[in-house]
Design goal:
This protein has 118 residues and is mainly beta. It has no helices and eleven strands.
Length: 118
């Protein structure tokens, strides 16, 4: 079992910045991919950004150039730096870990609320 604990959410004005953190209960080397997702009421959870063990990153088109995902292996933590925030970025942000061997296993954090005011 893995615990993922998100933090760093809050209320910010449009154009502002936030940095989300996802602290894992074990070494993040053990995960093939870690990602940030977000969800608003009545909508599907969507991928925001992901990063693989090979440091390959992937971003949703809506956040490219504004958000950056990174890892700190020493702290077993994944970050999401969010700049130039827009009201449409308002959502609950979740961290997810993915391991594919010996079987596909996913763990999710409890989520952190991000609210961007106009």
């Amino acid at each position: 079992q893995v615990q993922l604990a998100e933090s760093g959410g809050g209320l910010v004005q449009a154009g502002g910045s936030l940095r989300l953190s996802c602290a894992a209960s074990r070494s993040i080397f053990s995960f093939n991919t870690m990602g940030w997702y977000r969800q608003t009421p009545g909508k599907q959870r969507e991928l925001v950004a992901s990063i693989t063990n090979a440091e390959s990153t992937n971003y949703a088109d809506s956040v490219k150039g504004r958000f950056t995902i990174s890892k700190d292996h020493a702290k077993n933590t994944v970050y999401l730096q969010m700049n130039s925030l827009k009201p449409e970025d308002t959502a609950v942000y979740y961290c997810k870990s993915l391991t594919i061997w010996p079987q596909v296993t996913e763990f999710w954090g409890q989520g952190t609320q991000v609210t961007v005011s106009s």
